[in-house]
Amino acid sequence: QVHLVESGGGLVQPGGSLRLSCEASSSIININAMEWYRQAPGNGRELVATITRGGTTNYADSVKGRFTISRDIAKNTVYLQMNSLKREDTAAYYCHAVVVAVYLSDYWGQGTQVTVSS
Question: Which of 92, 75, 66, 101 is nearest to 22 (CA)?
Answer without folding.
Answer: 75
